[in-house]
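Sanity check

After download, print the first record. It should look like this:
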Amino acid sequence: MTVTIDSDTLFQYRRFTLYNSPYVAHDTGAAIDLYPEAGTAPSPVAGEVLETRTVEAPPKPYAATHDHLILVDTGTHVARLLHVDPAVEAGDHVVQGDPLGTLVRAGFFAPWVPNHIHLGFRDHDTNPYRASGSLGLTVSVDPTPLAWDGTGTVVETGETWARLDSPTHPNPGSTFVGLASDGGVLDGGFPHYERGGVLGDGTEATFTDTAVGTASDRTVTWDDVTVEANGTPVRGVALYCARDQFGLKLVGSTAGELESGQDVTVSVSHDES
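Expected structure tokens:
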């Protein structure tokens, strides 16, 4: 069984990704990470809160030691939400858009990942606490593919990432966009996570017209490739769908060494076996 996330739900958020995570539910896009406006945590589902639970998170110097799980009975499924310190409790009824609590930067996050809500769905008779077992997801929007020539200027930086000014969103707020790949868009951590996805009408995984993975339906196993910025290897590229703004995000410690205003050429090459 597959659960569809409708457009009204998605448009509550600035960005979403089905694959950009190393955790098991994202391996085949059976969970979605939803990125809200700063300081908000609007509920993507409606229903009765079944339980909230505090869970231990991997120790990271930049992150909280605990995360939180919120379970909501939507009537048809149990929604499983993570990364929100809950302001709701068992027995509460929520509607879509209600504030769930405060976003938590947990130790499950890579250092370049912003705060977000993780959402997955389970059948009622399935263990909701295990990391595996979520139902497949689809989204009811067709992200617009953005062609890109591999060049851009750094407009935003952090210790482990840098964002370029291209490709740009042609009409921010109106539609979701992503990096073009053979008619669809690429999604996922490329190539620093094992798998990613091609959303929309695409059937091949290409990065600036270079084939970079093998697709099975929409799920992609990345090839052994190296991404370089101005000839220096970086950890990879964070790929997602966005409605507010776009611009390629390079990640890893060497990406964090790039400076604002610096012109960058990004290239990808297959590693020799």
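If your output differs, re-run the checksum step. Summary of this record's structure: The chain has two domains: 2-139, 144-270.
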